[in-house]
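ok so heres the complex, two chains, lmk if somethin looks off
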Amino acid sequence: MLCDKCKKNNATFFSSVNINGNITETHLCENCAKENKLFSFNNFLAPSFDAFDFLHDEDELVCDNCGYTLSDFKDSGMLGCSNCYKVFRDIILNNLSKIQPALTHKGKKPDVSEGLTENEKEIKKLEVQLKQAVNEENYELAGELKKKIIALKEGDKHE
Amino acid sequence: MNNNDIIISSRVRLARNLSEQPFTTNTNIEKANNVLTSAFNALSEVSNFNLYKCKNLKSDAMEEMLEDHLISGELINNSDISGVAISQDNTVSIMVNEEDHLREQCMLDGLNLKRAYDIISDIDMELMTSLNFAYDNQLGFLTACPTNVGTGLRASVMMFLPGIVLTNNLSDMVSTVSKLGLCVRGAYGEGSSASGYVFQISNQFSLGKTEEEIVQLVESTALKICDLENKARQLLLERNKDNLADEVLRSYGILGNCYKISTSEAMELLSKVKLGCALKLINLKQPEVVDELIKNITPVKINKLSNKNLTETERDLFRAEYIGRVLKNNRI
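and the predicted structre for the whole thing:
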């Protein structure tokens, strides 16, 4: 079906409004939909990739942790792992500046783990697994986990 | 008229990812299963959730959870690796291996965003004692899609807005709301058409404001839209009462007397009856039965009500009989 507005491109956006039985149907192509207020909110959510343009002739960036490439990011709008935020940082910040009111997080922080050492975090994690193993009556695993926890706690004392 | 006729429900969700694992979009079965196991272990510590692995759920059960907004279509698409934890009262659901490792959400009736945020935030804090969430000092909580980064929060209010639609004010409302950094969608998520005059109002940005500021903005905007909706309904009554009453009563007449009816036709007619009840053009013993009917007429719910696996035609017959019976029992 052709776009109701430009009559040139295929219509990909569809809306139907029923007013006292009079149904008004609108079919628009992507370009005309962008200009139409009713559809503006849909487009706002799609990440804008204008920021990639300057990179076309440069070497492909690759995340050294997960192997995700800049092309993967560009194609899907998604990142591969938390390390991608370091590798593609400039591009991400450039994109975010167009859709976010500010570029610094003001909200809640994971305080719970912030003050803990890596050892203490590991102990907490193992304790959760231990409870789970006991619940599942997997006493062999529970025994192993308990030994690990004791060893880590001993390690803490010697530090 | 009051806001209860307009605001259906409030929902807050937080997107979180485990720091050491690749995001769901870039994972393999083994790593995804590690995420599922870690998340379920942590969740079983926090509260008495019912835990379901999607691969063990029947498709009907998943469809019902989807209709009840407990899970998303994307979670079903990932059913070989995904799971969900649901609270005993069905107000909290935590999806695992959706777009993000965890999508923690709380949904409450009416305008209740602050309480929904408090509930889900407490659960989130508890989860953080055993799970290491991906977090960056500048960007906050890291998400698979950068548009959710920061708070990872989306606060949304589901609203019934026939007055704004019928007075042709929808596109103005949408453009005003989008200037505030919020967006309006059809009730059934991204890309869905707005059926039954039901819309979701939610924040588009997630970074640079606190969770409380975002919740406050969505809540105050929802209240302003309520005022607009009430004014639009008043205007409809003043200028077009005869036509409106005729439309509402015809809808009521069809619903009460038809022999078979599809989900979409029933949904459209019930929305008009719901408007009629709010404007006192129809009096039912318990107007809230209309909301119950709207929830219960989908194919999955009709199959459940009938205790059978009906064909589409059989469902249309059952639906017509069911709606007719409920409306007849509520006639004054």
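quick notes: Helices of chain A lie at 30-35, 40-45, 70-76, 84-87, 89-99, 111-114, 118-135, 139-158. thats all i got rn
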